[in-house]
Write a structure and sequence with these properties.
nine-stranded mixed β-sheet; alpha+beta; oxidoreductase; FAD/NAD(P)-binding domain
Length: 607
């Protein structure tokens, strides 16, 4: 049974949550929970998904906004991690072809202490990276650039001590759109998904087995029970908090949250042509991204232990100073100050505290002996020429001698690995991981759920999630640019300006056809046709409940389109007030909430 997915159906959806029994209830509507919901619903399980906030409001709208291939892992020849990462990235390109976009990345190399790569080791890493990623297109194949070639492409980059750079393929991502498209597809396949419903207790039957959730509607404050055969905790940074709701298990903390900060400036202030990734020159083991987007440039990220409010992580003056010092050093003429920052975001990474198998952003400082490094390079060269197998590469890496290992663990050294635990009593906890691996994590979780259902005598046939597109992803993944162009042309033929059609297609993929077909509906006052239809679609089909939901997580107005946001802010709030039938005090409350979010995003409290 397919359910509608808007505010006006929310009451009916809550009634279904109260009155039906589910095969699976998922707590957490970030990318992990969304991925599980899609696979569960598509596999025929009666699935419910709840989140105490808006979908993706936590970590999953606060990433670096890349489907990152993880080339950095190849510093230690961590082939398995990169192989898994680039394979999953390729799958995301196929199941959500309208979301990832090719973003060739520049990696400058400087003659500085403790650099991540030398020019030689970078070339070896990039060749291996291309091989693992299956990159055969000359347009995207890696290359080494001389110092002069680097400065020709990026004239504002620091020239002192610059040796050259590598150019390789990475992908931009719209993280919150990836979440909502997964959830929408789950809903199309019969799932019941409701935001702003908070789990308050994990329930058990008389035998002590988990059999549901006591939940609270955060809008009406009503408490109710959701019955289910299985309950999955996919709450990201809140995993430990949800585990505390289950009185049958021990509550030893599993998570070690760290905070990542990103800052946005106008492109005129920091004009970069290519996404760029470089060492901080602070000998802290970190690297920083600088990425052009829309008419802006953003940069980050920090990676520091975090012990504050998980809902509202604050960007501190120390965070800003750290990033600005690095950026102004790498781009000496930029002279960016706090006053230049137009937008920002801070995200909490749900790192698993005791999983130290591989690095994320910095990592444990380990060095290969010269002999081991030479052996690895020679074996990798043979592999790239198809004269050695992957097993031979893995063997020589496994046998490599590590010298100077520093056993102290810093926040950048905790693995981005994931963990699936069946707690005592049956609560399923899916923790950790990174955005690029979300489908793989969900697949592993579904395989375990299939086993558990089999023990109950129920057969569950899993879909092949590597070939199952998300909502909006019904495009030929081998012809994405051509498909996007066709959709834009359809929009133009329906009377939209080309820029308007492009805006809709890039945001909604194949669902753009649904929006174009609504063009005869009366637009909201003071909004263009594309802005009006985009808003209406979000209200009716994407569970938008507040202006912040729309401006921050269904579109990018708050982060990358602040100029237009200032123009349409009041018309959008007026339109939502009309649609939701808000009284004047409710409308004022939402406008105040939006203004507060804008001020926080602009770092007004620091300025």
């Amino acid at each position: 049974m397919r359910h509608l997915f808007g505010y006006k159906q929310r009451y009916q959806l809550i009634e279904i949550l109260k009155n039906e029994r589910f095969d699976l209830v998922i707590i957490g509507g970030g990318i992990t929970g969304a991925g599980v919901a899609l696979q569960a619903a598509a596999s025929g399980l009666r699935t419910a998904l709840i989140d105490m906030q808006d979908f993706s409001e936590g970590t999953s709208s606060r990433s670096t906004k890349l489907v990152h291939g993880g080339i950095r892992y190849l510093k230690q020849f961590d082939v398995e991690v990169v192989s898994d990462t680039v394979r999953e990235r390729a799958i995301i390109q196929k199941i959500a072809p309208h979301i990832p976009r090719a973003a060739p990345m520049l990696l400058p190399v400087y003659d500085e202490p403790e650099t991540t790569f030398t020019m030689f080791s970078l070339k070896v890493a990039m060749d291996l990276y291309d091989q693992l990623a299956g990159i055969s297109n000359n347009r995207y194949r890696n290359s080494l650039l001389t110092k002069e070639e680097v400065l020709e492409r990026e004239p504002h980059l620091q020239s002192e001590n610059l040796l050259g750079a590598g150019a390789y393929l990475d992908y931009q991502n719209n993280d919150s759109r990836l979440v909502i498209e997964n959830i929408k597809q789950a809903v199309e396949d019969g799932a019941v998904a409701v935001s702003r419903v908070k789990a308050s207790q994990i329930l058990h039957d008389e035998l002590g087995r988990v059999n549901g959730v006591l939940a609270k509607d955060e809008l009406t404050k009503e408490e109710f029970t959701i019955q289910a055969d299985f309950v999955m905790n996919a709450a990201g940074p809140w995993v430990d908090e949800v585990r505390k709701l289950d009185h049958a298990i021990s509550h030893t903390p599993q998570m070690r949250p760290t905070k990542g900060v990103h800052l946005v400036v106008d492109k005129e202030k920091l004009n970069v042509t290519h996404a760029t990734y470089f060492d901080t020159d602070k000998q802290d083991g970190r690297m920083i991204f600088v990425i052009p987007r829309e008419s802006k440039t953003y940069f980050g990220t920090t990676d520091t232990d975090y012990h504050g409010d998980l809902k509202q992580p604050k960007i501190t003056q120390e965070d800003v100073n750290y990033l600005l010092e690095i950026i102004n050093n790498r781009y000496p003429k930029a002279n960016i100050t706090l006053g230049d920052i137009e937008a920002s975001w801070a995200g909490i990474r749900p790192l698993i505290a005791n999983n130290k198998d591989s690095v994320y952003n910095g990592g444990q400082k380990k060095n290969l002996s010269d002999d081991s490094f030479t052996k690895i390079v020679k074996t990798v060269e043979k592999f790239l020429e198809n004269h050695a197998s992957r097993e031979e590469v893995e063997k020589v890496i496994h046998e490599a001698e590590i010298i100077g290992e520093n056993t102290a663990i810093n926040p950048s050294a905790i693995s981005r690995g994931s963990d699936l635990t069946v707690e005592e009593g049956g609560l399923l906890t899916l923790a950790g991981g990174k955005l690029t691996d979300y489908r793989l994590m969900a697949k592993g979780a579904m395989e375990k759920i299939t086993e558990l259902f089999a023990q109950k005598g129920k057969v569950v046939e899993l879909i092949d999630s590597s070939k199952y597109p998300v909502s909006g992803g019904k495009l030929d993944p081998e012809m994405v640019e051509e498909e996007i162009k066709k959709l834009i042309d359809i929009g133009v033929s329906e009377g939209f300006e080309k820029d308007e059609a492009k805006f809709i297609v890039e945001l909604y993929g194949s669902n753009a056809i649904v929006i174009f077909s609504d063009r005869r509906r009366k637009p909201f006052p003071r909004l263009s046709m594309s802005e009006s239809l985009s808003l209406r679609y979000a209200l009716e089909k994407e569970m938008v409940l507040t202006p912040v939901d729309y401006f921050m997580r269904r579109t990018n107005y708050l982060l990358f389109m602040s100029d237009r946001l200032n123009v349409i802010k009041h018309p959008v709030v007026d339109a939502m007030a009309e649609y939701f039938e808000w009284d004047s005090s409710t409308k004022e409350k939402h406008l105040t909430e939006l203004d507060k979010q804008i001020a926080e995003t602009e770092l007004a409290y620091l300025k």
